[in-house]
C-alpha cells in the first residue's frame, strides 16, 4: 500500500468533498481509502509519501484531441485558409506512421507535465498512438478516423474499418487503452458510414468519437443534402446515443440541443480552439441546463496550441459569462467538474475515474499551490480555474503509477521526444517554404 | 558593460527585427548596442552572460492594474454583486496603508516572476505602492485615486489632490516612478474633478489614469445627467488627450471611438477582467483600425486573478477573433506589440522603453523556450501568445538591473511577502464570515 499523507484533497466526488489536510491510500492501481488528518496505523510495508501540503486532485480528462498534431503547433496562425493551404497538403505528403508516433510522444510528455491522465484521441495510424500511450502510461481512447477524403492511413472506408478491427483486436484486453471508431464528421462520412460506425460500436461495446455541429458549412450541408440538421442526421444514423463523444457542438439549434439531451450524448467542449478559429461561443450553458454532460477538451494542438486543461479553464468560463452577460454562468466548480468527473462520464469511464473515491482507479495529480500567483486562496476552484498553470503540476499518477515526480517525467524520454519532433518540424518547414514560394 | 550573448532576440522595434542568435550590450541602465552572431571584441572589464539560446524580449508593460488587490484574488468569484457585498465593505473596514503595502509586495513579486517590468497602478495609499515598486526595482506610474465615494485614504477630492501633490513631490526626481492623478471614472468623479485632474496633469506634465466607458450604468449615467456620452463628457472636461490612459473602453459608440482617436488617448484593454465579469468584448479591433493606441492590462488581480500578461494574450486575441468571426483579427504579432511597445506608448514612455533598441532603457525579459509545450516554434509570436506561460520567464531586468535570475527574485523576499499577505487574507476571511453570517 502507498500512503500519500499531509495532502490537501479535492475529491470531486458527488458531495464535492474537500479535505484541508488528509491522506489517500493506494493499493495496486486503485484508491483504497482516504480521509482527514493522519492515516490509521498501517503495516510496516506501507510506502509513505509526504505531499508537503500540496493539493491532490483527480487526474484530468481530455475528451477531444489529435495528439500527433503537436507537430503543427503554431503553424499558420491568423491565416484563414490554413487548413487547405498548409495542413492538408502537409498531412498528405508527410504524415506517416513514424511521424504520428513522434508527434504523439511529444504530446504525451506535455499531457503528463500538465496533469492530464486520460485522453480521447482521433487521428491516423492510431496503433502508434496506442503504442505511445502504453509506453507513457497514460489512459485513453484511440479513435480510428473514418473519412471520405484521402486520409494518410486509409483509402476508402472499408480500409478504415479494417484498421479499426485490427486496432480493437490489439487493445481489447489492455487495462488503460480502448479503440473507438472516429467518423470524422457527418459531412465527411455520410449517413451510411455513421450507421456502420454505430453498429460496430454496439457490437463491440465501444465508444464513438465524431466532430459534430462544428462549422456553418456542416450545418448548411445537412440541410441541403438531407433536409435536416446535422444533429438530426446523426440521430437517424443511430449515433446520437451515450456512446457518442460529440466534439464541438458549436451551432446546434434549440431542437438540436433537445435531441442531444434525449440521446444522452456527451459533448466535448473545446473553448480555445473555438475562440482561436473565430468560430464563436458554443452554447455550453444551454446544453448543461438541459442535462447534457459536457467535458473540456483541447482539440489538437494546432487549434489550441497546448494540451493541458488549465489553458481551457478561463476561456471556457469567460465565454459563457460573456454570452450570458453576467459573472455567474459556469462557476469555477463546474469547470473543474467538467475537467475531471464530467470528462470521465462522457468517455464512459465515469465509474472508474474522474474523482478521488475508494475503489476508483488511482489517477491523480499533485499540484503545488506555493507560487505567489496562486495566493491567497479563498476558493480552491477559483484558484485552479483562474490562476493555476500546468507548470504548477508537480506529479502525475495513472492507475497507481507515478508517471512524473518533481516535474521529471519517468516514462517518456523528454530530450529525445523534443529532438525527434524538431526534426519532423524541419521537414514541415521545408515544405511550407515550397508552398509559400509556389503561391508567391 | 554587460554583454548578453548567445540569445534569440525579439526586438519589437518598428521593423519587427528578429535575430535568431545574437547579443545585446548594456551600459548602465541603457541598451548600448545589439546585433547578430557574436559581439565585437570588447574590453576585459565586460561582464559576459551566456543566455544559452534563450529568448530576450522587451520587458512587458501593464498599463492598468490595482496591485494591492492581490489580497482579494479569487474572492467572490461567480457572485454578481461581489463589489458591494464583499469588496467595498472590506476596503472600508480593513484596507490601511500597511495592508496596501503588503498586497503590493506580493504583486511586485508576481510581476517580476511574470516578466512585467512596468505597471500603471491606481489605488489608495499610493506612496506605499511607490515604496514597494522602488524596493522591487520596477518601473511604474502610481495613480492617486480621486473619487466622490468614501475612500480608504481620503474624504473628499481636496484631500485626494493634496495627497497627489505630496506624491508628486516625493517622486518628481525618481528615475523609474512617476505620480499621476487617477480620477476613478466619470460617474464617480464628475466633470469638475475631471477638469481639475486635466489641469493638474497639464501643469505638472503628467499622465492621467481613469476607467472609461466600462459599464452600461456609466453610459446611462452620462446620458441622463449630462445629455452626452461618457466619452464626450471626458472630452469636454479636457481629459481626452494623449495624457489619458483610458481603462476598458468596453462600450464606446462609433462616434465615441472617433473622439478617442481624435484625442490621441491611449486605451488599456483588460480582456480577462472584461470576460470574467461577463461584460463582453471590447471593440479593440475597431479602435485600432482608427489608429487608437492600445495596451494590454491585467486590471486588478481581483478581476483577472493574475498580474502577468501571458494570461491576457490568448483571451485578447480570441475575443477579437470571435467578434470578427474569423481567425484573422488581432494577429499574434500585434498582441506582443500591445504588451510591449504599445503599452509603453500609452503610458507616455514609448521613447524610453517598449523595444530592444540602442539608447532605450534596458528593461527586458529572458524566456526559456525549452518546455515541450512550446515546441516546435513556427512563429515566435504565436508561441508567446498561445503557448508560453509566466513560468517560462527565467530572468527579468529593469534599467540594467536583474530583478530575477534563474527564477529567483533578488529584490523581494518571497517567503515573507507571501506570509504577510496570508495574514491579511485571514483577517479578510474573518470579515467575510461575518458578512455571510449576517445575510444568512
Rounded radius of gyration of chain A (Å): 21 Å
Number of β-strand runs of chain A = 17
CATH class of the largest domain in chain A: Alpha Beta
Fill in the CATH topology of the largest domain in chain A. TIM Barrel
Which residue ranges of chain A are poorly predicted, with pLDDT under 50 across at least 5 consecutive positions? none
Termini of chain A, distance in Å?
64 Å
Question: How many helix segments of chain A?
Answer: 15
- This entry's quaternary arrangement is homodimer
Summed up, the domain count of chain A is 2
Structure keywords:
homodimer; 440 residues; alpha/beta; Urease, subunit C, domain 1; TIM Barrel; 2 domains; nine-stranded mixed sheet; four-stranded parallel sheet; 15 helices; 17 strands; 40% helix; globular
Would you mind describing this structure in some detail?
With about 450 residues, chain A is α/β, with parallel strands linked by helices. Chain A has 2 domains: about 110 residues, Urease, subunit C, domain 1 (Roll), CATH 2.30.40; about 290 residues, Metal-dependent hydrolases (TIM Barrel), CATH 3.20.20.140. Helix content of chain A is about 40%, strand content about 20%. Chain A is globular and about 65 Å long. The termini of chain A are far apart. Chains A and B meet through α2, α10, α12, α14 and α15 of A and α2, α9, α11, α13 and α14 of B.
Amino acid at each position: 500500500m502507498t500512503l500519500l499523507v499531509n495532502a490537501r484533497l479535492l475529491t470531486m466526488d458527488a458531495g464535492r468533498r474537500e479535505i484541508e489536510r488528509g491522506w489517500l491510500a493506494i493499493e495496486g492501481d486503485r484508491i483504497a481509502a482516504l480521509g482527514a488528518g493522519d492515516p490509521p496505523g498501517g503495516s510496516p510495508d506501507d510506502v509513505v509519501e509526504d505531499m508537503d501540503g500540496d493539493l491532490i486532485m483527480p487526474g484530468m480528462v481530455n475528451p477531444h484531441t489529435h495528439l500527433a498534431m503537436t507537430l503543427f503547433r503554431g503553424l499558420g496562425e491568423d491565416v484563414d485558409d490554413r487548413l487547405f493551404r498548409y495542413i492538408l497538403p502537409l498531412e498528405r505528403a508527410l504524415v506517416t506512421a513514424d511521424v504520428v508516433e513522434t508527434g504523439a510522444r511529444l504530446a504525451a510528455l506535455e499531457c503528463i507535465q500538465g496533469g492530464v491522465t486520460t485522453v480521447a484521441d482521433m487521428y491516423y495510424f492510431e496503433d502508434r498512438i496506442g503504442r505511445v500511450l502504453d509506453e507513457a502510461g497514460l489512459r485513453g481512447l484511440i479513435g480510428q478516423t473514418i473519412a471520405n477524403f484521402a486520409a494518410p492511413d486509409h483509402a476508402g472506408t472499408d480500409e478504415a474499418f479494417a484498421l479499426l478491427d485490427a486496432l480493437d483486436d490489439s487493445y481489447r484486453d489492455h487495462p488503460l487503452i480502448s479503440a473507438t471508431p472516429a467518423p470524422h464528421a457527418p459531412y465527411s462520412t455520410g449517413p451510411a458510414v455513421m450507421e456502420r460506425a454505430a453498429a460496430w460500436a454496439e457490437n463491440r461495446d465501444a465508444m464513438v468519437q465524431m466532430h459534430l455541429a462544428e462549422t456553418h458549412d456542416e450545418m448548411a450541408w445537412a440541410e441541403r443534402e438531407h433536409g435536416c440538421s446535422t444533429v438530426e442526421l446523426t440521430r437517424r444514423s443511430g449515433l446520437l446515443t451515450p456512446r457518442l463523444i460529440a466534439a464541438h457542438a458549436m451551432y446546434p439549434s434549440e431542437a438540436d440541443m433537445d435531441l442531444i439531451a434525449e440521446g444522452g450524448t456527451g459533448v466535448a467542449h473545446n473553448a480555445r480552439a473555438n475562440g482561436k478559429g473565430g468560430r464563436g461561443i458554443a452554447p455550453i450553458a444551454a446544453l448543461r441546463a438541459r442535462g447534457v454532460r459536457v467535458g473540456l477538451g483541447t482539440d489538437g494542438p494546432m487549434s489550441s496550441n497546448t494540451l493541458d486543461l488549465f489553458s481551457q479553464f478561463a476561456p471556457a468560463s469567460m465565454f459563457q459569462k460573456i454570452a450570458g452577460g453576467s459573472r455567474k454562468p459556469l462557476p469555477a466548480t463546474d469547470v473543474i467538474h467538467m475537467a475531471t468527473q464530467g470528462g470521465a462520464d462522457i468517455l464512459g469511464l465515469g465509474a472508474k475515474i474522474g474523482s478521488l473515491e475508494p475503489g476508483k482507479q488511482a489517477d491523480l495529480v499533485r499540484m503545488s499551490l506555493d507560487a505567489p500567483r496562486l495566493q491567497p486562496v479563498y476558493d480552491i476552484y477559483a484558484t485552479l480555474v483562474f490562476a493555476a498553470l500546468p507548470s504548477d503540476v508537480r506529479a502525475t499518477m495513472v492507475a497507481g503509477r507515478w508517471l512524473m515526480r518533481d516535474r521529471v517525467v519517468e516514462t517518456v524520454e523528454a530530450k529525445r521526444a523534443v529532438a525527434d519532433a524538431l526534426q519532423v518540424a524541419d521537414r514541415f518547414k521545408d515544405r511550407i517554404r515550397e508552398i509559400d514560394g509556389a503561391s508567391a
